[in-house]
Design goal:
By secondary structure, the protein is α+β, with helices and mostly antiparallel strands. The chain contains 2 helices and 6 strands. It has a 6-stranded antiparallel sheet. β1 and β2 form a beta hairpin. The longest helix has 9 residues. The model has no long low-confidence stretch (mean pLDDT 79).
């Protein structure tokens, strides 16, 4: 049976584990819009100076970790892949 996300509660629509999970595409766009995640080559990293929207699961986007992102229909799969580059980490601390 296909999942039926609640459009009024996108922060509750997280599937998977901390290492690899999906969020609604709308929530992904919000993360980029507020600047909470920024591009780091072919991945994304957390900008600790920007606000992170609410998530049911804490610490989904730890500082200093790179995330690989790919679209899966109306969701986005996010995978933790490696630490951020030392230069990029120092830019945000």
């Amino acid at each position: 049976m296909a999942r039926r996300p609640d459009p009024n509660k996108p922060f509750l629509d997280i599937e998977g584990e901390r290492e690899s999970f999906t969020i609604p595409h709308r929530k992904w766009r919000e993360l980029l819009f507020v600047g909470a995640l920024v591009s780091d080559g072919d991945a994304y990293v957390r900008d600790p100076s920007r606000p992170l929207p609410a998530f049911r699961i804490p610490d989904l986007f730890p500082i200093g970790v790179r995330f690989k992102v790919r679209e899966e229909g109306d969701h986005v799969r996010i995978e933790k892949i490696e630490p951020a580059s030392p230069k990029l980490e120092s830019d945000y601390t």
